[in-house]
Structures are given as structure tokens and as C-alpha cells.
# Entry
Amino acid sequence: MLTRLSLTAAVAAVLVVAGCGSAQSAPPPAQSAPPPAPSAPPPAAGAYGAFTQSYTVPWAGSPDFANLMQTLKVDVSVNGGTVSPFTVDTGSVGVVVPASEVPNVPPGAPAGELTYSSSGLQLTGVWVTLSVRFPRAVNASGTRASAQATVPVLAVTSSKCLGGGVNSRRCTGGIPHMLGVGFGREPNRPPTYNPLLNLTEMAAGTMRRGYVVGRGGLTLGLTEANASGAWTMQQLATAGAPAEGAHNDWLTPPGGFQLGSSPVFSGKILIDTGLLDMIVEADGLPASGMVPEGTPMTINIGDLHYTFAVGDGGAQTPIGGVHHARAANGTFVNTGLRALGRYDLLYDADGGFLGLRAE
# Structure
């Protein structure tokens, strides 16, 4: 889910903007599976073989990837508080939780404000560094072993709908449970705010920083067993020295889209697991409105692509349609979650790789 964050002077402000695009009608193509494609240079030999530690966190609710109707969730407890299902959101960075579910929030924590730009939901609370625990995690040997990270968390005390954003009509004002685990949301919070990159073992250097969003659950920590095989890897460009912490971020990968028989619009792409619909934007295309149902679309993610017709009900077809939005940052497509209807996703934060595996 795309976010915009406004914080006090103690915490730097950040902004992530939604996108825009257009459509033409033509006979809808058949839904196609991702074809084989050349991959980026693989990580250095032994990069994953040097690590054996990982966790798998089962999805709450046993989602059907062939027809994803809700966002992906895992059970989480913040600071030893209530265990609740949290949405795994690659479109934002940072943990969001109702303050009422967080024990022992220290007095004097810096105020914070976060706005999800796609829905116009504004959240107000305090940033506080706390433990984020995954109580249902199992380790690489299949033994229950709770995984834990210590990261800044936005403990939310109030919320409101501001209007604006392609999904503003769906804004209820409720306080969500969100695990913002994305990258390249420039400018945005640094990787120190990402709970999936700051597990205890990752901080100690005994687990490779990264994760897999797959059919079997959310995998934390990359090893030879979970990161090798039929992945198409895309090398990411570095975002440079971080605002804080020891690890740099990586930029949003290249990608694009085509509407009907229009030219291909090439720019950047975000696989945003916090949305079920899609957003496209490019100069010369409408700044608002919807791509008409039945419009054939092709989505390019690096060397891979997939196709659908808007509204055709396919595994990778967004629910709620495809939105145009203002091209504030050039050509951009937010695929939403349903891009993963036929892919598993890997993010290697240490090597700077995005991996997709056809399923």
C-alpha cells in the first residue's frame, strides 16, 4: 500500500506518491503464464550457501494464490501484546499497530503521522522502538521457534479519512495492522524500520537479510534451500548510503505496461502486496478514472511479463479495476497483490536482488 509519512523534526518526513495511466479497448487476450526469460547475473557463488538459518511464518487464513481476495496476513505480537493478523505490505516501510494493543509504550516517545496515499487514511500516534514477534514461526528444521525483530513501530492513537487517493471511497477510518516491508519507496523510512530485515539473527550476521513471499508462507532469511532454483533474478540499483543504520536501500526496479495496442510505457514498477487493485501512470495518459473493462494489458517486470484483460477474473487480474493516476514521478505501475497469483517473490536485501519464480 503506497504511503506518505509526515513526522516530527525528530523523525525525517517522507513521501511516496501514487501513479496514473490510460486504456484502449481490444479483444481480450487469454491469461498467460510468465514465460521463461533471461535472468540477471546470479548472486556471488556461495552467497546463500554460507547461511542455513531461516524461519517460515504461515499465512493466516490459508490464502488461495490462484484467487487472492484479501491481502496476505501473518500473526504478530508487538512488545508482548495482543497477537493479531498483520498485512504484509511491500508498498510501505514500517510497522503500524493500534496503541491500545501495545503494552508499556514509554512516555515522551516522538509523535508521528502516516498517510496511506492510495486510501487517504491518516494515522497519528508515536514512534517507539519495540519487539515485533512472529509467534507461529518455525525454523529451517521445522521446529516452532518464535522469530523476533526490534524496530521502530508507529503506535497509533487516532485516525481519519482525508479523501483523495484512488481508494479513498473504501477508507473507513479504522486503524490497521500493517507490516510495511518494502524497498525503494524513495524517499522513505530506511531499512532499519523493516521488521523482516532486522531479525535477531540478521542483526548478529548469522542470517542473510531477505524474505520470500510464497505459497507455503512468509520465509524470513535466505539460504541455499529457499533462494536457489528457478528464480528469475533482477539486480537492483543501490539507493546509496542510508539515513540511518548500516545497510543501504535499493531502488524500485524497472518495469512498465501496455494498454491494448498502445505503445509500451516503460518506467518503474512496484509489486504492492497491500493493494488488490492496480494503478498505472504515464505522461500523456489520463490523470484519473479507470481503465475500461475488457482492455488487454501487459505488465513488464524486468525480463518477465504477464497479460490479462481488465475484469477477466484471472489469477493475476486486479480486483477493483485498474486506476489512472497523475504521473507525478514519470511512468509507474503499481501491480497490486494479484501479480503474485502466478509468482513467488524473493527480496535479497544484502545482495540487492528481486527474484520472481513462476508457479
